[in-house]
Design a protein that fits this description.
The complex is a heterodimer of chains A (313) and B (281). With 313 residues, chain A is an alpha/beta fold. In chain A, 40% of the residues lie in helices and 20% in strands. Chain A contains twelve helices and 13 strands. In chain A, strands 3-2-4-5-7-6 form a six-stranded parallel beta sheet, sandwiched between helices. Chain A is globular and about 60 Å long. Chain B has one domain (7-271): Rossmann fold. Chain B has helices at 7-30, 36-40, 43-51, 81-88, 127-141, 159-170, 191-194, 200-206, 219-231, 265-271; strands at residues 69-72, 147-152, 176-182, 210-215, 238-243. At the A-B interface, α3 and α5 of A face α5 and α6 of B.
Chain lengths: 313, 281
């Protein structure tokens, strides 16, 4: 646990590396995608660390076969490719088959939202959260920082279901000095009155900046890091949403298309929670501008200035 | 060839193939939505595996750890497995009467709720990759159990198969046996007219597989070929290309549209007589 900057993948892969030493039933598959910690795994466990090459369909199919043989499998690639290139493999062999067979396959997708900011729309992922959340039997986690990613390891081993871990590609500062409330599925990082910013992934950091700015103006808004999008505690979420007059959802996904905003709107409606919900995310188009991540957020209407404007209204 | 069948065993397998052929047509009569043509081209393959002592299985414990894994990728074309699984004791024979009716687990495309089916089937291009993962897992356990997978020739157009073909060869999965039911017909035409991937034997040989070719309806040749392929361990995955006839023995035999054509009830009544005598070949 800590507040320093670190990548989510290194935090999780370090834990996997330690576990692979004692647990011979763990396989790590990569679609020719690397990480510093992965070099250690490859060197030490050459028979259980398999580079399937740039072949995401086979990545999922081989992972399924290994899981059917009782292995815990981690499969690793860039986020849009491990979700969209092989979506039907995930649907058929993981989501559907896990109704009948136990399949512990953990998909690690790196490159949430705009995190490959200089790479353009092929490498950016605005659809993955919604389409993975759509699949029955698949758990979805979208952490904002590395302590959460590290905490996912024990859950990955214990929950014998397919899972999707949506990771940022860049090091982000830690947000937790104590335990991450994995079972709750979200954490209220800052309590507020009136307005709460509920964000998933990197936008949590932007939300904290916005909250600090608003606090200096005497407006105390809440900030929630929502990372467990399928496994959250519904009563805890209802209680949280009930304490606010307005909620602003923030996410690096297409807005209104099944991501965090859809989750919150549907949930509030189902529970009859009388809260106003504004949604901020990526407008429904593909753009090719090269810019920093925060500049891209501003261009797409979900930057710091737009968050502040929404919270001030 | 080694593993030659005794005359008695050969006759027994031929009689079983005839029974399965009959039962498959009767299933189709009950459930015309079943893909009968594709399910008739692999009858002898299933019969050799299940009745010819080629496959280790326990019908009372379908997930027995010591079983050979048999993945059926061409799900629609395996309705002929239903009578075999019932006859072998995976479920009661009476279930065959209930195919595609409410409450039955026997659907038009088989699902893994059917005892004896390993994986989900029917969406094409998945089985070989999944089987490769199973074979790798078996190797890693040190068990080295056989993993067999049945793929249709039309299904080879799915690129995922070629990802798996390269993967299995690269990792030397010699406990993996691919059986291609090469009936030469896709959904709308002859396979070569849709996308000509021939010569398949040369392609798979070049891709590092041990290739066997055989008449998929000639049990006398098919059984020893399957036996040899399955038992061979030379550091390469094996493939048996079984040349077959889609819709064999019916009016839709080898018709370019046989995949989607039905065999009408009155034809089934003519073909399948009361004592189950062989009506074709």
């Amino acid at each position: 646990m800590g507040l320093e900057k670190k990548t989510m993948r290194d935090a999780l892969l370090d834990g996997i590396y330690q576990k692979m030493k004692e647990d011979k039933k763990i396989f790590f598959l990569t679609a020719d995608f690397g990480a510093p910690v992965l070099d250690k795994i490859r060197a030490e466990f050459p028979k259980r660390c398999i580079n399937v090459s740039i072949a995401e369909q086979n990545l999922i199919n081989v992972a399924t076969g290994l899981a059917l043989e009782g292995y815990t499998v981690f499969a690793y690639a860039i986020a849009p490719f491990i979700t969209m290139r092989c979506y039907e493999q995930v649907r058929v062999n993981l989501a559907i088959l896990s109704e009948i067979r136990e399949l512990n396959v953990n998909l690690i997708g790196v490159g949430a939202g705009f995190s490959y900011d200089m790479s353009g729309p092929t490498h950016q992922a605005f659809e993955d959260l919604a389409i993975m959340r759509l699949l029955p039997n698949v758990e979805v986690f979208c952490p904002a920082e590395w302590n959460t990613a590290a905490a996912l390891l024990d859950h990955a081993l214990a929950s014998k279901k397919p899972k999707y871990f949506r990771f940022d590609s860049k090091p982000q500062p830690g947000l937790y000095e104590g335990p991450v409330p994995l079972k709750t599925g979200f954490a209220e990082l800052k309590k507020g009155q009136g307005t709460c910013l509920i964000a998933t992934g990197y936008p949590v950091h932007v939300a904290l900046k916005a909250a600090a700015q608003l606090s200096s103006e005497g407006n105390e808004v809440g900030v929630v890091d929502f990372f467990g999008l399928k496994t959250f505690d519904p009563d805890a979420l209802a209680a949280l949403m009930g304490r606010y007059r307005q909620i602003i959802s923030l996410e690096e996904t297409f807005v209104g298309k099944g991501g965090l905003d859809s989750l919150l709107l549907y949930f509030a409606n189902e529970r009859g929670i009388p809260v106003k919900i504004k949604v901020l995310g990526v407008p429904e188009n593909y753009r090719f501008e090269i810019a920093s991540r925060d500049e891209l957020h501003e261009q797409r209407g979900m930057g710091l200035s737009q968050i502040l404007a929404a919270a001030r209204r | 060839m080694a593993n030659q069948l005794s005359p008695q065993k050969l006759e027994q397998l031929k009689a079983k193939a005839q029974w399965v052929w009959n039962q498959t047509l009767l299933l189709h009569k009950r459930a015309p939505e079943t893909r009968v043509a594709s399910s008739l081209s692999d009858v002898e393959t299933f019969v050799c595996l299940y009745y010819g002592d080629l496959l280790q299985y326990d019908p009372k414990n379908p997930r027995w750890e010591g079983r050979d894994r048999f993945v059926i990728s061409k799900g629609h074309g395996s309705i002929s497995m239903y009578p075999i699984l019932a006859d072998c004791g995976f479920f009661p024979l009476e279930e065959l009467e209930r195919i595609c009716t409410a409450g039955s687990f026997l659907g038009g495309i088989p699902d893994p709720i059917i005892p004896g089916y390993e994986t989900i089937n029917g969406s094409l291009g998945h089985g070989l990759g999944v089987a490769s993962g199973m074979a790798l897992g078996q190797k890693n356990k040190g068990d080295d159990r056989d993993v067999l997978v049945l793929v249709g020739d039309g299904e080879l157009s799915e690129g995922s198969n070629w990802e798996a073909i390269m993967f299995a060869a690269h990792h030397g999965l010699d406990n993996l046996t691919l059986i291609i039911d090469d009936n030469g017909i896709g959904m709308l035409d002859l396979s070569v007219n849709i996308l000509n991937w021939t010569p398949i034997k040369a392609k798979l040989d070049t891709f590092g597989w041990e290739v066997f070719e055989v008449d998929g309806h000639d049990i006398e040749q098919l059984h020893p070929t399957l036996a040899q392929a399955k038992s061979q361990r030379k550091g390469k995955p094996k493939v048996v290309i079984a040349k077959t006839i889609k819709g064999r023995g019916t009016s839709i035999e080898n018709h370019p549209l046989s995949h989607i054509l039905m065999v009408k009830a009155d034809e089934v009544d003519r073909l399948v007589d009361q004592d189950g005598a062989l009506q074709w070949g």
